[in-house]
Each structure stands twice: as structure tokens, then as C-alpha cells.
Design brief:
The chain is α+β, with helices and mostly antiparallel strands. The chain is built from 11 helices and 33 strands. The strands form 8 sheets. Strands 1, 2, 31, 32 and 33 form a 5-stranded antiparallel β-sheet that branches. A hairpin with a 3-residue loop joins strand 31 and strand 32. The longest helix has 28 residues, at 516-543. The protein is elongated, with a radius of gyration of 32 Å. The protein starts with a helix and ends in a 10-residue tail after the last helix.
Length: 573
């Protein structure tokens, strides 16, 4: 019974599977803040006491529990090898680890130490690793030089003199490095004073050294696809800054190219996190707002016009703590952990919550994903693995269709109620939210057009009418098309485009001869044409000093104005 085109759209984006209940649960000695997924179903947990647990998802067993650092682990990163990873800790060491499943152990090699200065951030790609220290230094290691065997080498740092290169901040008082990220072309980091540094990975040249006007940077991220040459920084005051890191552009315009721009302003304090997708960006703000918002990536639009959807999350208590994303079979999902122990999964396309995974008894503190699994850790000292089962059912697609349809109907009903109460702007907001979920629904555009008309925003109303009409015609809904044409005609009448309005009213009556609004509107437009002609005749009579004709012409204007109830709009001049 559903609209075929809309159903086809939903089916094309629906997931070939379901989330299973949490089948694997591990209890840890502390609250693991750092999680890492290795290939072959292994999950790495870094704990506060320097211990590392490796969990085998396939057998639901604890495979390894081993001391790596003396003190808290401050980061875990993966490299291209399926069983190798790198850790860093508050003890100032960076260590290369290799899981040996057959022996149920981790082989450890020291990559680096900085005389006990804690490692405060770390990042990696397939070929390199970058890490920052609390005394304000940045170190870079080229992993392609790692031509060694951990069975024979005990200390990699001593055996490879040129293994790493060192970058130091050009500051008189170096500050703690709080974020480090790396792409195929650039290294970037920032410190507690919101200074941002970017190096060209090939030339090792510092190309950007900039201060961000923010108290604190909470997250850094390189853009993808068309935004690959931009660095994004989220600040605690709700702004997301962007810096263009096209090296050629920086060299040509050194004074302007590196200036940070405000890419997005959520106008909320306490930005927790953000995530960039292929066509949108999601932001998560905590108390007192607790909102998840989806935004267009188009920087040419005003901030308010870029909002695609807003989801109020205030029912979840003390806010949200983690944001991540998962791409499964080409479909984008947003993963959020909340303070009540729930992990929620959002469909980026429809921007609705499709799953709620209940498991932790206390706030979620970390999430890691791969193509088929979501792993979460909580303050309840548990680690839970949520599997993506490989099965497809048409019922799931229909359930998703019904969920979207119910949401659209609810928003439309709220909009209708606001219209009846003469709260036109509120009605427009509800219709706009519904349109984001169902952009092919002509009724929503028609209703919003009426709201804009009542607010005297005639041009916006005309735009909605022009969108709604072909959608209605596609559905062969003549009554709705007649109503849309009537609303379009009224807007044209209001902005004095009388002949165009007559055309709209005429087309409306051709579809529905009983449409009294269109008939009245057409009559008003004809009278307004007569009014304009009589008014022009009167002005010309005055100009030619023909008082009798001028009097007769303006008397006709008054008679016509009374007929169309426009007397109050006549200029006394």
C-alpha cells in the first residue's frame, strides 16, 4: 500500500541484517577507556593499570591479559598488519605489540621513550605513527622502516638510529599536546592553548601554526572526499573550525590561506563530538542541550539553513559521551553511547534511531567499530560486543518504512495543530522536520507553503508550491494539485503579479471546478487589474488637467477596492 518510490528508496538503503543481543560480555579490572579492533575477531582493551586484555570474539574467551606499561595506558592505534598494534602510556613509552594467538601472548618491543615524559596523544595510518608528549613535543615514526623480527630484536630504538624524526613546537612555553592526527599527506596536532600545528608529511615542513579562538579544542578530524584538504576542529563552545591545508594554496597566499574559518556554529555550549559523513556532518552537544544534529556540508548556506535534522536527547539524563561511525555495505551508521549505558545506532540517511542496544549499567565510556561489529566499554567495568548478523528480511525494510511514515505523520499533525492555533512559525518548523524525513511528500510542501503565506513570506511559499506541484502531479492527485495552484496564485496576487495569478487560478479550476478559493482568487485578480487600470487612468487625467475624468477614475478605484476588500491598502495619495 506504501508509495512505491519512497519504499524503493528505503529498501535501497536498508541494512542486510540485524543487531544481535550482546553475546560476549567481559568484566575488566578497571574502566577501559581505549579499545581497538584487530582483524580475526580480536578486541584490545587498554586499562588504567597498564594492563592489556585481548578478547577473542569467536570463542567469547579472554585470550591474553598482560602488562604493557607501568601506569595508565594513554592510547592504542592499529597499523596495516592484522595482529600488530602500538600502545603508549603515562610512563613515557611507546611500544610495538604483536599478538601471537597460538601462544596466547603479546610480543613487546619498545619503539620510543622520552625520559619519563607521559605520552598524551597518539595517531596512526598504515605507514606512520605520530604521538605527542606532555612537555609539548611531537614525534613521528615511519613504519615502513620497520624491517625487523620481534623474535630477534628486543629494543627497536637502539637498533634503528634513523627510525623516527622529531618535531618540536616553536613555542617559548610548550604546552601539553592533547590531540594528534595523521592522514596520507599531513600531520596535525593541537595543545591545551588551542594552538594548531600542521606539517607536510612528505617535506616535513611546518606549513601552519595557528591559534584558534576557543578555550579548548575537543576534537580534530581531516575531511574526506571533496574535503580531503581541510582540517576540522571542534571547540567546546559549539563551533567547528576548518583550515585549508592545500600546500600550494598556502604558499601562494600565506597570510590568508591558513586562517581558520568557522565552518559550522551549533550555537550550543559543550560540544562533545562531531562526525563527517559523505553528504552531512553530525554534531553532538551535551548538557544543558543534549542534542544530536545533522547539517549540510554546503558552506555557502547560512548556519540555520544547513540544519537537516535535530534530535532532542534530553531524556537520556546526563548527556552523551561518545560518537563514532560505521560503514556497512556502503551504508553509513552513527554510533552513540549514552550516560545510561545504552548504545544507540542511527541511520545517517533517514537520521532516525534504528536500534537501541541495552547492556551497560553505567555510562558508556568508549566505542570502537568495524564493518560488522560494535564494541563498547562502560563504567560498570564491562566490555560488550554487538554483532551484525548477515541476514535480510523484507519485514525489516517495511518496519523501517513504517517507522519513518509514523514519524512524518506525527510531525505533520503537530504542524496542523500549530496552524489551527495561528502559531505559523512553529507549524513551519514541524513541516520542515517532516520534509527532511520524507522529501517527496507534496502535502508537506503544500502545508508549509500555507504557513509561509500566513507569515507573509510569499517568495518562500512560491518555492514550496513549485516543489509540491510536480510531486502531486506524479501521484495524479488532482484535488491536491488544485489546492497547490490556488496557494501559488494567492502568493502571486499578494505580490501584485495579477496576470500570473489568474493563470494559476485558471489551472486550479480546470482540475477542480468546485474550488471556491480559486474562483474567488481569480475574481480578485481580475478586479485588481481593473483597479490598476482605473488608477493609471486617473493619474494620467490629473497629469492632463482633466478633473472630471480623474474624479470618475478614482471613484471607480474606490468601488473596485470595496468589492475586493482592499480599501485599507489604497494609498491616500
Amino acid at each position: 500500500i506504501f508509495n512505491f518510490c519512497f519504499m524503493e528508496s528505503v529498501l535501497s538503503r536498508w541494512y542486510s541484517g540485524q543487531w544481535a543481543p550482546s553475546a560476549e560480555v567481559w568484566v575488566t579490572a578497571s574502566k577501559p577507556k581505549y579499545l581497538l579492533r584487530l582483524q580475526n575477531n580480536f578486541t584490545v582493551c587498554g586499562e588504567k593499570d597498564g594492563m592489556v586484555r585481548i578478547l577473542d570474539d569467536s570463542t567469547a574467551n579472554l585470550l591474553v591479559y598482560q602488562q604493557i606499561h607501568q601506569g595508565q595506558i594513554t592510547g592504542l592505534v592499529s597499523i596495516s598488519h592484522p595482529l600488530k598494534f602500538i600502545t603508549c602510556g603515562i610512563d613515557g613509552f611507546v611500544k610495538f605489540c604483536e599478538l601471537v594467538p597460538s601462544k596466547k601472548e603479546i610480543k613487546i618491543t619498545t619503539l620510543f621513550s622520552d625520559n619519563g615524559s607521559p605520552i598524551s596523544s597518539i595517531a596512526s595510518n598504515d605507514h606512520s605513527v605520530v604521538f605527542g608528549t606532555q612537555n609539548g613535543k611531537i614525534f613521528f615514526i615511519n613504519l615502513e622502516k620497520l624491517t625487523f623480527d620481534t623474535d630477534t630484536l628486543e629494543n627497536l630504538e637502539e637498533s634503528n638510529e634513523n627510525l623516527f624524526e622529531t618535531f618540536e613546537f616553536s613555542q617559548k612555553c610548550p604546552s601539553v599536546v592533547i590531540h594528534s592526527i595523521i592522514s596520507n599527506n599531513f600531520i596535525s596536532c593541537c595543545d591545551t592553548t588551542s594552538c594548531v600545528y600542521i606539517w607536510d608529511l612528505k617535506t616535513k615542513e611546518l606549513i601552519i601554526n595557528n591559534q584558534i579562538e576557543s578555550k579548548k579544542i575537543v576534537q580534530m578530524m581531516f575531511g574526506g572526499n571533496s574535503l580531503s584538504n581541510q582540517l576540522f576542529l571542534g571547540s567546546d563552545d559549539g563551533k567547528i573550525f576548518s583550515i585549508n591545508i592545500n600546500n600550494d594554496l598556502v604558499k601562494e597566499n600565506p597570510d590568508t590561506a591558513i586562517l581558520p574559518n568557522i565552518f559550522l556554529d551549533t550555537k550550543k555550549t559543550n560540544l562533545i563530538s562531531f562526525q563527517i559523513f559523505s553528504t552531512s556532518i553530525a554534531t553532538l552537544t551535551g548538557l544543558p542541550h543534549n542534542k544530536l544534529q545533522f547539517w549540510s556540508l554546503d558552506p555557502s548556506k547560512r548556519f540555520d539553513d544547513r540544519i537537516l535534522a535535530t534530535r532532542e536527547l534530553d531524556t537520556w539524563g546526563n548527556g552523551l559521551v561518545m560518537i563514532s561511525h560505521l560503514t556497512s555495505n556502503g551504508r553509513e551508521l552513527l554510533i552513540i553511547g549514552c550516560s545510561q549505558g545504552m548504545v544507540t545506532i542511527w541511520d545517517v540517511f533517514s537520521r532516525i534511531n534504528i536500534y537501541k542496544l541495552d547492556g551497560h549499567h553505567d555510562p558508556v565510556i568508549s566505542i570502537v567499530t568495524d564493518d560488522w561489529v560494535v564494541v563498547s566499554s562502560g563504567s560498570d567495568k564491562t566490555v560488550r560486543v554487538w554483532r551484525f548478523l548477515d541476514r535480510y528480511t523484507i519485514e525489516d525494510a517495511l518496519q523501517q518504512e513504517k517507522a519513518i511514515k509514523d514519524m512524518v505523520n506525527d510531525l505533520k499533525e503537530k504542524g496542523n495543530n500549530e496552524m489551527k492555533a495561528s502559531h505559523y512559525q512553529n507549524a513551519i518548523d514541524f513541516y520542515s522536520e517532516a520534509i527532511k524525513l520524507d522529501p517527496s511528500n507534496p502535502i508537506l510542501y503544500s502545508n508549509r507553503a500555507l504557513g509561509y503565506f500566513r507569515c507573509k513570506e510569499y517568495q518562500r511559499s512560491i518555492v514550496d508550491c513549485k516543489i509540491a506541484l510536480p510531486l502531486s502531479q506524479k501521484e495524479k492527485n488532482d484535488l491536491l494539485s488544485s489546492k497547490i495552484l490556488c496557494r501559488h496564485g494567492k502568493c502571486l496576487l499578494a505580490i501584485s503579479k495579477y496576470q500570473e495569478s489568474i493563470d494559476c487560478f485558471t489551472q486550479s479550476l480546470q482540475l477542480d471546478q468546485t474550488n471556491n478559493d480559486s474562483q474567488n482568487g481569480k475574481n480578485d485578480a481580475l478586479q485588481m487589474i481593473r483597479f490598476s487600470e482605473a488608477q493609471l487612468l486617473g493619474y494620467n487625467a490629473i497629469k492632463n488637467k482633466n478633473g472630471v475624468l480623474a474624479f470618475q477614475s478614482f471613484e471607480n478605484c474606490l468601488l473596485i477596492a470595496k468589492l475586493i476588500d482592499k480599501l485599507s491598502d489604497i494609498n491616500s495619495d
